[in-house]
Structures are given as structure tokens and as C-alpha cells.
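Recap from last week: sequence in, structure out.
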Amino acid sequence: MMKIGLYASMFGKENPPQLESVESYIELAHELNVDVIDFLSGRGFQSKETDYLLGVKRTCLKYGFSIGYLASTGHFFGTDEDLAKKVLKAKDDARTASFMGSPLIRLFTGPPLDDPEDRAREIRCFQEICDHAAECGIVVGLQNHPSTGDDMLRILRQTDRENFTVIMDTGQWLGSPARNKGQADPDVDTYRYMEQVAPHTSHVRAKFYKIDSGVEAWLDYQRIVRILRDAGFNGHLSVVFEGKEVNTCDDRTSLRLAVAHLRDILR
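Predicted C-alpha cells:
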């Protein structure tokens, strides 16, 4: 049975925000009775000190949460200095994830690269991070942000590491409604992209944009869950709310409605 989670994104619309710390998301996750919580490195944490991180870990344990993944960096394109900084951050996040008991860090792709040398440098970054993460006992999840199914499969194949997997983002494909104010590109079948990567997927970022009716308007979660089930996926669907510009309800209500929508479908 797929389980539902919550991503502590802090990308809401409220000013000042009600949800501005990992602690506030942990309390909301407890209120919503979800199974897993995901964190974004460097956002919402009061400290990087081990005593503080251990306290966050203890609270998650008390509430019965698994920590799904720690979101790190991505888009390995730029100068050698840029790439070195991103690789160093990802390695540091792998160590933090290991300390907190999360099995997974998230890296994202960025748009597909055209130049063969740029592609080769990108793959070398993924390989170096995976090799370091393996020493920490950590799996590296590749998020399509933004990408295509073909490019995701290419990166997986060329990186060629046992601890490299997919974190599917339901809304961040090239051609997705999220990238064009709710209007999908009629020439792009993003559900086909999901079918391509579903067999390689270990975790899902279930994006919600327009949920104030109680049903997500931009993405068809009945269809998405069917794709995942057909692929044998039995992991976490983690709610990621990014609808700050189009929802009439507040952030907490949006997240509550998103969780309820997924629960209805999974039943």
C-alpha cells in the first residue's frame, strides 16, 4: 500500500507564513496523520549542529514518521567552480541525511543539455556524488526538474550506479501545466514520461497547485496512481504544495485537502 507524506517546502503564499520551520511542518504532518516527512536542506532548520538535528530526528521518531529524503542541489551545469560547489554541497547533505536516518537525498536535473561535453560533466558529477553517498549508506534520487522521460532514463543509464534512483516529480516535466500557468503543452504527453520512469521510481513528489475544490485541477492523480500501481510502485507519495498564486484557501487548508485527495484515491 502506498503511503502519504509531506514535504517541508515552505513555498506557501502567506505573509507572514504560518509554516516557516521544520518544526511547524512536523506538527502539521502529525495533525494530518501522514507516514513520512521530507526536508529541504538549509531551509527551515534552526541549526546544522548535531544536537539540534538529533532533536528533529527524535521528534519524527516520537510521531512515527520516517524521514523520506533530504532535498539537495542540482542542475550540474556551469563553470568548474560552480560544479565543485554543488558536488560539495550534495556530499555534505548525504552525510546529514545519514545522520538523520533518511535513506535518500534529492538531486534535480535542470533542462536537458545539448552539448556532449556538458552532458559528460553532468554525469561525472552524478557519479562522484553517488560514490560518496554510497560510503554514507545513502541512495541518490534524481528528480525531473525539469526534464523528459528520455533524458531521465539517459542520465540513469550513463551514471550507472547502484545507489542511483528516481524521485518522480509529477508536476515538473517539460511541458507540464506548472510551467505554463496551468496550461499543459498539447504536444507533450507528460503522463507518458511518468510511465517511462515509474519502474525506476523510489519516491514521488506529488505536486499540488489548484486544490481548493478538494480535487487537484492541474494534474490527474487517478491516472498517476494507476501508472504507479501498474509499475509495481509501493513507496511514498509526498505532498508538495506550490499553488500559492492560484488557491483561494490558506496553506494549511491546501495541504489538508491535498492529503485527503490522495487518501480518497488510494482507497
